[in-house]
Amino acid sequence: MASPAAGQLQCAKRQHYAALYAQPGAMRASFAQFLAFSQDAADNRTFLAQGKLQMPVLAFGGEATFGPGIGEVLRCVADNVEDAVIPDCGHWITEEQPQATTDLVVDFLRRAH
Predict the structure, then answer these.
(1) Which residues have C-beta within 8 Å of that of residue 84, sequence separation ≥ 6?
(2) Contact, 96 vs 89, CB < 8 A?
(3) How far apart are CA 31 and CA 37, in angstroms?
(4) pLDDT of residue 41
(5) pLDDT higher at 7 or 14
(6) If you ran DSSP here, which 8-state letter would residue 4 be given?
(7) Of 12, 16, 90, 113, residue with least CA distance to 100
(8) How far, in Å, CA of 75 to CA of 69, rounded?
(9) How many CB atoms lie under 10 A from the CB of residue 47?
(10) Which of 77, 89, 90, 111 fits a 20 to 30 Å CA distance from 66?
């Protein structure tokens, strides 16, 4: 689901990403991360067997995508989770709402030290 802000991605940015993905091997490389999912799952089970994360964790997402549920997901692996939803935002959080994202992360880091 796209947010209204998703349409705000400037034409220049879209052209920039299109040019990057058009390079030889770029699409294959960008999708290669998905090949690691099985190993990630195994590693995560091993780490979780040692107990949940105890450090402060910031879970955030765009209101049109994972924002409303990401805190619940991360509470499966961490005890000290603060969750936040970036308004008027979809999947591309730092592109759609850069200032809101920066403010959220900086505030969290200042308080979580």
Answers:
(1) 58, 59, 60, 67, 104
(2) yes
(3) 11
(4) 94
(5) 14
(6) G
(7) 90
(8) 10
(9) 12
(10) 111
> Each residue of 78-88: pLDDT tens digit?
999 999 999 99
Structure tokens at 101: 């994202």
Mean pLDDT score of the chain: 90
What tokens appear for 86 in the block? 């970036």
**Three state DSSP letters for 32-90:** HHHHHHHHHHHHHHHHHCCCCECCCEEEEEECCCCHHHHHHHHCCCECCEEEEEECCCC
**Rounded distance, CA 57 to CA 4, Å?**
28
Tell me what the mean pLDDT of segment 18-41 comes to: 93
User: For the whole prediction, is pTM greater than 0.70?
Assistant: yes
Contact partners, residue 58, CB within 8 Å, separation at least 6: 81, 82, 83, 84, 104, 105, 108, 112
Residue 6 DSSP SS3? helix
The Cα 46–Cα 49 span in angstroms is 5
